[in-house]
Amino acid sequence: MTSLECPVPYTENERLLLGHGAGGRLTAELLESLVLPSFGPREGPLEDAALLPGSGHLVMSTDTFVVSPLFFPGGDIGSLAVHGTVNDLAMRGARPVALSVALLLEEGLELTELKAVLRSLGEAAQEAGVPVITGDTKVVGRGAADKVFITTTGVGRLLPGLSVSAAGARPGDAVLLSGPIGLHGTAVLSTREGLGFEVDIASDTRPLHRPVAALAGLGSGVHALRDPTRGGLAAALNEIARDSGVPVEIDEQALPVPAPVAAACDLLGLDVLHVANEGCMVAFVAPGAAEEALAVLRSLPEGREAVRIGEVPPAGGHPGRVVLRTAVGARRVMDMPVGEQLPRIC
Question: Could you tell me which of 304, 159, 300 has the C-alpha nearest to residue 222?
Fold first, then answer.
């Protein structure tokens, strides 16, 4: 007679998904459950750039760029690596001072392609007025990477009179957007898949530190800034609403969506609110400073299409929730994106 034994229960290890890097809900879960606890306790919200301990005025940000393809209408991985880190510093209210660049290169990459990427990176840094002062280069075997991955780290100095934070939005604030949405994500996807939209759509990648410096003249009237990159406008607004503990209401009809972008999103079944951008920013400003802030933004090339898209209700609403007032007069919750609509776009 054989004895019955309970078998060891089978458990499958959880695995990483592309959506964990999309900047939405899966990314937040990965950070909160695994990444951040590994580094010890932290204070305050996650910002695009962090204040250097003991400095009082210096901030630092780092980002890795894995965009595919390397070149797309309006930009490439080299210029994007500069713009992305410069913008992260700017969203913390800092003027960029210097950059570090690390290159992860795949064996077999054509040197002419690498030269074009590096030339673009160098030109973007010079145009932004930010020197590349240090870096690193590694080469891995074929198949261990996809041509070029770039990590840029930036150091910036806080602008006098400007104190912005993802937790800084206040009741009554006006919500401003510096330009059209959806251009970067649809341009990259169209080029990658050969969809043909690249004839009409080019990425909006560009540095935003100059319009932020101009907004610094409004001083305490500017409360929060965020560039809607991974996860798009929906993710940026949800992050600020969550960290500030305020409701946010957005007018769908006020959103600047270029016609070719709207057509591409309709055809591909994409939500333009979740599509990445690389050259516009969201600003939460005091109601009395809204018109002046719009005038400041519109006076610069980077913000000439700036619009007011919503507000933080002065009273009522659900803290942390973003609501979209639709074109037909209905209201719906603008959720944080869950996974990855468009992988490998930044």
Answer: 159
